[in-house]
Specification:
Layout lengths: L1 H22 L1 E5 L1 H7 L1 H38 L5 H55 L1 E6 L12 E2 L1 H8 L3
Parallel strand pairs: 1-2, 1-3
Helix pairs in contact: 3-4, 4-5
């Protein structure tokens, strides 16, 4: 009798577990597609481009200075003393070094600015995805562009619902 009750209990548990699994809901979204249509993304992108142009302008100014001094050196160096040539050569080397340092600093600053500008956009997208997922009763939301394969008939694309949550048409 105990074995019969154990068997019935195991079968009932297995059926319950199978039914529970069948009721679980999965969703997917292409987060990149979502982010690219967000107005905040476009604004951040414009700010980043403007900042990049500003940094490029500074680098270009250093290059113009270098070119000007190089032209001067090439034109007039024959009439200069060795000491003056040495000073002017060192000036050119210093400008080149400053140019390289400025390029490296600009690249680092551009990356930091990109992170600063896009972090709120990514958070806003993630929060909206979570809100839609919770409201829809989904237990997992797949990033569709990062998964090699998933059966779209077994998962719901929540992109339009998240766009609606964000007020995007």
């Amino acid at each position: 009798m105990k074995n019969l009750l154990k068997t019935i209990f195991i079968i009932a548990f297995a059926m319950l577990a199978n039914t529970t699994f069948a009721q679980q809901k999965f969703a997917h979204i292409n987060r990149t597609e979502l982010i690219q249509v967000m107005p905040d993304f476009k604004t951040a992108q414009e700010k980043l481009e403007a900042y990049g142009k500003e940094l490029s302008s500074t680098i270009e100014e250093i290059q113009v200075e270098y070119n000007r001094k190089l032209d001067e050196f090439q034109k007039d160096s024959e009439s200069w003393s060795d000491e003056k040539k040495e000073v002017k050569t060192q000036e050119l080397v210093n400008i080149q070094r400053r140019h390289q340092e400025q390029q490296q600093t600009a690249q680092e600053n551009l990356q930091k600015k990109e992170q600063d500008l896009f972090a709120p956009v990514l958070k806003k997208a993630s929060d909206a995805i979570s809100k839609v997922a919770k409201a829809g009763g989904y237990i997992y939301v797949f990033e569709s562009s990062a998964v090699h394969y998933f059966d779209e008939t077994q998962s719901t694309n929540i992109l339009s619902a998240v766009k609606q949550e964000l007020g995007i048409n």
